[in-house]
């Protein structure tokens, strides 16, 4: 991951064929909370998402119906 700074030139090189996703926009008005793979503007929502993850409330990754990665303790 890299952060591009407005007005500066950056060169990115890949060691193998890659797909590049470029995201941009204004900074978010409110803070974001991050825990493991979960990101939200609310700590309560992060806690609910952790519970949902443990209970299998998120869909499976397409093409990988068997693997489940447990939430780190």
Low-confidence stretches: none
How many DSSP helices? 1
H/E element sequence: EEH
Q: Percent helix among the residues? A: 10-25%
Mean pLDDT: 90
Q: Give the tally of β-strands.
A: 2
**Main β-sheet, spatial strand arrangement:** 1-2
Tell me the β content.
5-15%
Q: How would you classify the quaternary structure?
A: single chain
What gyration radius follows from the Cα positions, in whole Å?
A: 17 Å
Shape: flat
What brief labels describe this structure?
alpha+beta, two-stranded antiparallel sheet, 1 helix, flat, 16% helix, 73 residues
Could you write a compact summary of the structure shown?
Helix content is 16%, strand content 8%.
Describe the structure.
The protein has a domain at 29-58. It is built from one helix and two strands. The protein has one helix spanning 43-54; strands at residues 33-35, 38-40. β1 (33-35) and β2 (38-40) form a beta hairpin. The longest helix is centred in the middle third of the chain and has 12 residues, at 43-54. The two termini are 25 Å apart. The mean pLDDT is 90.
Task: Describe the secondary-structure layout.
Layout: E1 33-35, E2 38-40, H1 43-54
């Amino acid at each position: 991951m890299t952060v591009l700074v407005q007005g500066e030139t950056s060169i990115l090189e890949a060691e193998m064929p890659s797909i590049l996703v470029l995201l941009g926009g204004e900074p978010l008005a409110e803070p974001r909370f991050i825990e493991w793979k979960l990101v939200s503007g609310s700590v309560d929502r992060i806690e609910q998402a952790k519970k949902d993850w443990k209970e299998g409330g998120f869909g499976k990754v397409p093409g990988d119906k068997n693997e489940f990665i447990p939430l780190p303790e």
